[in-house]
Amino acid sequence: MKIASFLWKDDPWYGLVEGDSLRPVEEAFKTRFPSLRSVLAAGSVAALAEHCRNQPALGIDTVTFLPPVPDPERTTCVGINYPKRYPLDANVGRPEHIILFAKLPGTILGHGASLEIPAGEAAATFDYEGEIAVIIGRPGRHIPADRAHEHIAGYTAFNDGSVRGWQKHSVHAGKNFAGSGACGPWMVTADEIGAPEAMTVTTRLNGQIVQHAPATEMFFSITKVIAYVSHLAPIAPGDVIAMGSPEGSGGSRVPPRFLMNGDMLEIEVSGVGTLANRIGTGNAGTATDKYAYSGPSGCSF
User: What's a single GO MF annotation on this record (predicted)?
Assistant: First the structure.
């Protein structure tokens, strides 16, 4: 299943994606489970389809997309998880340990939203990072890596928007500008992804491929990352874990190519779809520029 969250009737809603249409969940089901996170927490994803079946179809270009889980308890990103030129002017090898950082509420927008260009000098080093992300479906703590797949609800695409100049102040500063990143366009349930290690992430900037890599290039696999995060703190349904970004982000290119007003950024994850966002000066959290999804074409440090 493809499950999206979106604004409908001026309220946050969720439902199934079917081709170029959406079927919002029945109001009674939504009253019981107000968000996709609550559906995941109740273990009711399978029931969701039944409560969408008889609903009217909405054109995919008639709604404002939200991140698949608009209200995650935690969004965790992995740093330096692919071989690459480090975007802060240094060459680094494989880290000894998994590197983690967090995203604050308000940093992540949905598919089709205009990403907010930072004000002042920060705009000069506004960067993109295309990533594969997992959405947690089952809670857990101290999860062994060989059982981690049991806790995955689904997969999505992720843009870890980064302001490189402010990363030199601190990682937290550079990674948490309002409206700088995105997630979506929806979650594809884990049962539809037969071999997660075979997934690829491809980033296109104004139609040109700037990043492309399979998950097999990750230093630390998806299951190892989930296991590691679960030893730090309990993972919860709806948590988002972004798995790092491969070579080709703007700061690691020679010469650097940072985002500019009007750029179109597309991040495709195989088996999922394409997350697309215009770069603009709209208010964070609002979709001032809708981008119609045309079907599959599909946090680094």
Answer: hydrolase activity
Angle at 215 between CA 214 and CA 221, to 5 degrees: 160
CA pair distance 261, 114, nearest whole angstrom: 10
Tell me the pLDDT tens digit for each residue of 213-238: 999 999 999 999 999 999 999 999 99
What's the domain count of the chain? 2
Give bridge partners of residue 214 from the DSSP assignment: 200
**DSSP H or E stretch at residue 29:** helix 27-32
Contact 25, 14 (CB under 8 A): yes
Residue 288 inside a domain? The answer is no
Q: Residue 119 is part of which domain span?
A: 66-280
User: At residue 52, what is the residue type?
Assistant: C
- Strand-pairing partners, residue 211, are 203
Q: Does the model's pTM come out above 0.85?
A: yes
In a domain, 41, yes or no: yes
3-class SS of residue 88:
coil
Query: Looking at the structure, do residues 131 and 56 belong to the same domain, yes or no?
Result: no
- Is the sign of the CA dihedral 194, 196, 197, 202 positive or negative? positive
Q: Nearest to residue 61, comparing CAs of 90, 21, 11?
A: 21
Q: Would you call 265 helix, strand, or coil by DSSP?
A: strand
